[in-house]
Amino acid sequence: MRSLISCLVALWIAGITVWFLAQPYVGQACSREAGAAGTVVRLLSGGD
Amino acid sequence: MLLWLGVLTGACACGRQIRTWLRATGEARCLEVGYDAALGLGVLAYLVLGLGLVGLLYPWALALAALSLYAIGWRQIPERVRWLREARWPAGRLESLLWAALIACGVAALVRNLVPPGGDEWDTLVYHLTGPKQFLQAHRIHFIEHDHHTNFPFNMEMLYLLGLGLHSDRLAKLFHLAMYLLCVLALCGAGHSLGRPGNGAGVPGAVGPAGALAFATIPAVAWEAGTAYIDLGLALYGLLTVLAWSEWRQGRGRGWLVAAGLFAGLALGVKMTGLLVVLFVCGATLLTEAWRRQTRGAVASTLLLGATAIGLASPWYIKTYVYTGNPVFPFFYEVLGGRGWSREHARTYQEEQQSHGTHAIARAVAEGTYRRMEVGVGAQSETADASASAAVVRALFRRGDWPNAAAALVVPLLEVIDPARFWEQAAVPCIIGPLFVALLPVLIWLRPLPPTLKALLAYAGFGLFAQTHLSQLSRYQIPFFAAGALGVGYGVVHLGRLGRAPRAAGWLSFGTVSACLLALHLLRATAALPTALGVWTAEEVDAATFESHGAFEYLNAHAGPKAKVAVFGEPRLYRLDVPAEFADRFHNTLYPYERMRTPDDFLSALRARGITHILVNPRYHPGVMGPGPKDRVARFIDALAAEGRLEVAFGDPAEQRATFVLRLTGRE
Fold first, then answer.
1. Do the Cβ atoms of B343 and B334 come closer than 8 Å?
2. Which residues in chain A have Cβ-Cβ distances shorter than 8 Å to B520?
């Protein structure tokens, strides 16, 4: 019983996390924020 | 920064003195700082309110109010200095890592606070800073008839007023950052207090920092830490109320019950939904004392708690009653009425509050157009969403919308799948992350839980349930995330009790998600860095990013001393120095649109209000003097412009891009 619960808990946590990371908005958000920060860095370093 | 630190130090000393008087002291130091500073800032908010009511909103009086914190708490200062000297970096590697991440969160939020508010900081520009600015200009708190928001309880806004009066909007914003940092410290300290004998002996020191990091990296929370909203103030006071109440429940003296009442009162003075924490602690007191068959004690303790909370918050509600005839204006209009509001306004407001979350998803599923919203990409894609996640959502809503009573069961899961439905727009701050859904249910197998943690989780559950009824915007849930975060920390640290696999999965999940969300927070701060460092001026950034910047500049420079502006589609008036009022029909009843039949009626209404200029943001009020859907106002303005009774003073209405200004020509 204990090992079944242990297995289910691990699967639940891992499953929810992977599900979250696989959502398109996670990539979109990272890309948007990295893009904004990249633009700032480029402008500051004298690029166009 | 120095002014901010000075006020916070005074607040700590003052709050400590008050807790000494109440005999409600003796806690983990981080939590002590949270209690003390929060209480001191509450005192300061009421001092500023007092100055506002007697018409003394001048910088010298505000400085005296801040200094009076030192006058109250000067005896406590040497002890606080000794604390600082004795502070040590945590010994454990895990705790050190968590604290380093928390410091990174704080620094990133600080950078964003060194930048004046931008166009995306909507409510900051609509009323959190605009209301205090108008009070400062008048040197007193007064009734602002065109904006109902200014009748809300304004504890946080009193601190913003102090910031604006003593320095700038950056100092004002820093007070919301203070609430964020104090939430983090309180969670870290609360984690320590879980380990006290009688509460949950043997709780490792990483619980608090892990919970604090789970809270601090939520993008919605991290974003709010960089602007002058109020939800983090409510989160702090709600959290401290439950923690202080839990101290009392564990037999640490009646002073803690009074302290809980004071924090609950401060929460109720930040926002009307602070009533949820008052109801929670009063209900919990009644139930737990009655359970111990102490009926008389239950009633007395509940009355003491409730009376302290409501008594402390009452100045705000009395003020609103005097101004509007309804202490909770504009809510419960059907029962309590209110000045400058109508049934139509009440219905529209209610519909808007209920338009988010499960209601929005149910509508899209019913129409067959459901797809997960994209975040931060501009226009939404039109293609069908055939993913498993969308299929899960469609299955959940197969039978229509969830009743509010049951929606709280699915809201946390839906916020992981489609968070933009729980925010006003599909922007990055809408993200909540999966840690609460992944780790809180696991606590069932980690019983018995420490009493303080049980109280926090009960408050978080009650709050989420009640808030789901009121509105499902995820930023309104921030106070309950703060309370639930300690459960996340407790869960991840204790998963080892269930075996090696859950432990590994827990830390892997916690580490990956925290790192990902912290990266988002740091990237956002990087984008603000040049303005914070003065490489770009705030003016340049505002001109490049805020579509109403030019129109405001024009009016500030050229409108003249007798100008008054009617505003359509642009409520973010913080940087407009000319007297102005919202003229859109859903804001107030100043303009009798239901009785207007002709453009002349509209013009007469404008003249009766002393209006000299009209400002239109075509993004939110399209169709005025250009292509797009035309409502009655657009048709009236078009007709008046065609007759030469209105002329363009600034901008190009035909483009329908940036905000433009029209002038009343005086021609009959």
1. yes
2. 29-30, 33
Nearest to B567 by CA among B583, B550, B545, B585: B583
Nearest-CA distance B537 → chain A (Å) = 13
Q: Which candidate, B351, B347, B345, places its Cα nearest to that of B593? A: B345
Query: Pairing state of beta strands B646-650 and B660-664?
Result: antiparallel
Kindly identify which residue of chain B lies nearest to residue A6, measuring between CA atoms: B498
Report chain A residues whose CB lies below 8 A from the CB of B498: 2, 5-6, 9
Nearest to B37 by CA among B246, B181, B164, B228: B181
Residue B606, CA distances (Å) to B344, B396, B591, B668 in order: 22, 50, 8, 13
* CA pair distance B186, B231, nearest whole angstrom: 16
Q: What is the ipTM of this complex?
A: 0.93
Residue A33: which of B389, B428, B438 has the nearest Cβ? Answer: B428
Q: Exposed e or buried b for every residue in B400-437, given b needs 16+ CB within 10 A?
A: eebebeebbebbbbbbbbbbbbbbeebbbbbbbbbbbb
The three-class DSSP label of residue B576 is coil
Continuous H helices in B120-206: 122-123, 130-138, 155-166, 169-194
CA distances to B350, B573, B594, B638 from B591, in Å:
21, 19, 9, 18
Q: Which of A16, A17, A40 sits opposite B530 (nearest CB)?
A: A40
User: Are B430 and B423 within 8 A, CB to CB?
Assistant: yes
Sheet order of strands, B660-664 included: B580-582, B565-568, B613-616, B660-664, B646-650
pLDDT in tens, B201-218: 556 788 999 999 999 999
| The one-letter amino acid at B72 | I
Search chain B and give the residue with CA nearest A5: B498
* Chain A residues within 8 A of B420 when measuring between CB atoms: 25
CB atoms within 10 A of CB B91: 8
Please name which of B193, B201, B238, B171 lies closest in space to residue B482, comparing C-alpha atoms: B238
Instruction: Specify the DSSP class assigned to residue B379.
Output: S
Would you call A19 an interface residue with chain B, using a CB distance cutoff of 8 Å?
yes
CA-nearest residue to A8 within chain B is B502
Question: Residue B582 belongs to what H/E stretch?
Answer: strand B580-582
**B122/B117 Cα distance (integer angstroms):** 9
Contacts of A21 in chain B (CB under 8 A): 512-513, 516
pLDDT tens track for B421-465: 999 888 888 999 999 999 999 999 998 899 999 999 999 999 999
pLDDT at B199: 60
**8 Å CB contact between B407 and B358:** yes
How many residue pairs from chains A and B have C-beta atoms closer than 8 A? 118
